[in-house]
Amino acid sequence: MVSGASLLTHGKPELDTYDAVAEFNRNDQGNLNDNTFQHTESVPYPAYRVKYDVDKIYDIPGVGESYEDCGRIFKIWLCENCGHKQPIKNSCDRAICPECWRTWATKEGKRVVERIKGFIKAYKDCKGKRIGNPKHIIFSPPQEEAKELVSEEGGVDKLRKKAIAIIKGAGIRGGLVIFHPYRIKWEYLEALGAIGKERKVGFWELVRQDALELGNWHEYVNLSPHFHVIGFGNLAKSNEVYDKTGWVYKFKRHIDKEKDVFGLVFYLLSHTAIREGKRAETWFGSLSYNQLSKVKRVVTYDPKICPVCGAEMVVEFVLTGRREEQLVKHITWIYKIPPPPEAQRTL
Ligand SMILES: [Zn+2]
Ligand SMILES: [Zn+2]
Predict the structure, then answer these.
(1) Taking the model in full, what pTM does it have?
(2) How far is the CA of 113 from the centre of ligand 2 (A)?
(3) N or C: which end of the chain has fewer CB within 10 A?
(4) For residue 223, how far is its CA from the centre of ligand 2 (angstroms)?
């Protein structure tokens, strides 16, 4: 298992050894906290559902159809020293796929960690001092207005734009936002919690599994648009932000470990709205694509190490039993914060 690598270390990528599912389940327990924050509905649920029918407009990961080969195991990692085996599941890497959405979320999670680490390093190189650890914050818009907006074509993009302006105005100068359209309905939390404890499965996974046999995952959720932020900066007081904007924010915590950034992103992606052809995460401010640029690609090839005995593992093809050596490719980037334009420099 992985030690909690600090965000400021720049050793080999360690994410491959994370047990993504365990991380996910651990984080999913935090869902109740998400819900404690729910805005009061001013329109009774059935009425507004008839009005907009918006509870069913978004898909979350893992609720679609898989392809025939999804999840099949054609090869495994094998430790020839101690016999430890790890299946390599065939994956289509689509967010909608019930077999493969975890592979999608794992890849996205690694990308996020990579860019955040890159920013921390670039900041130090550029400014000569360390920036603190990123914060996890939830921003919720005034609900009735937001629900109407996100039920329109392109409405989420408008709401996201607004969210980013408000997040920046609240003092967060850069980071990423992930949109959540839904929260789990209050009336099912207790029953789901009890099943989850027994099966050691998180809330959203139980929703996907239709654990209460309600017939469809949509039955478990209410439209309740909000944004999760992982970002850098000093937050203005919550009541001041609310008075000015009508948005409510809730500070969750500082994230000081690389694996915690990964675990959090994986969890947040597990119930984001799928955006066809677009990434679920949006970078803004000092971490946006035009303010933090990639300047150099670094590729390394590393052996896969057996988590039990530490030996190098090989790939074995299930059908033929043929074995071959294989290295794992890691791509990282060096990032650069553009220096301020000449004109703006003092001295
Ligand atoms: Zn698939
Ligand atoms: Zn081994």
Answers:
(1) 0.83
(2) 28
(3) C
(4) 47
